Amino acid sequence: MSDAQKAVIAGGEAARDSAASLAHAADDVINQALRAMAARLTGQAPEILAANAEDMADGQAAGLGQGLLDRLRLDPGRMQEMARQIGLLADAPFPPELLASAPKTSFGGAIYKMAAEDPGATFRAVAQRLSALPGGLDFTGTPEGLARLMTDWWRAGAADGFTIMPNVLPGQLTAFVDHVVPILQRDGVARTEYAGTTLRDHVGLPRPATPWAR
């Protein structure tokens, strides 16, 4: 195992161990941690960008798909935006400009309603309420891990289909198509072609008799 792999594993284990206590910490402790994260991203941006450039070169040499490479690529603008968004999760109020442009239906409407009901709500308070909405599963991991999760659920009868909601477009959607779908197809979980041209054909339903049929 390389030093880089050991460092990633150690960092992940430390994050896992601290997650439970941080989740129940006081707001000022969480806000302080978030501000420190944003400051470190900004202060160490040159080192992070240099390491990312090496990772990108290794990824291209290893044949990673363009979608995954786009997701992994960092630049000064992305670094600045990451730091800004982490800072928003501290005690900053919900940005009014987001409310002005938010759609008023479906999920966007839910965000608008939550923030409008409590004008003093912080960005983090709204995000916490949204992340607790039922019906979704957040996944972070490898294409193999996601494919295995979907396959296990489907074969166990826990789901008969999935709605994929990437939080970064188009990069994560492209990565899913390029790296997860081929695994599902290889394992016989996802089709490789369609049997017909209609939804009835796709799900194997017979076509009912009709007096207008010719």
What labels would you give this structure?
mainly alpha, 0% strand
Structure description:
It contains eleven helices and no strands. It has helices at about 5-25, 25-45, 45-60, 65-70, 75-90, 95-100, 105-115, 125-130, 145-155, 170-185, 200-205. It is globular and about 70 Å long. The protein has two domains: about 5-140, no CATH class; about 140-190, no CATH class. The protein is mostly helical. Helix content is about 65%, strand content about 0%. The longest helix has 21 residues, at about 5-25.
Task: Describe the protein's topology.
Elements: H1 3-23, H2 27-43, H3 45-61, H4 66-72, H5 76-88, H6 96-101, H7 106-117, H8 123-131, H9 143-155, H10 171-186, H11 199-203
Helix pairs in contact: 2-5, 4-10, 9-10
Number of domains: 2
Please tally the β strands and state the result: 0
- Contiguous runs where pLDDT drops below 50 for at least 5 residues: none
Largest sheet: none
Shape: globular
- Give the N-to-C terminal Cα separation: 67 Å
Number of helices: 11
Q: Please state the structural category.
A: mainly alpha
Assign a percent range to the helix content.
55-70%
Beta-strand residue fraction? under 5%
Q: SSE order, as H and E?
A: HHHHHHHHHHH
Radius of gyration: 22 Å
Mean pLDDT over the residues: 81
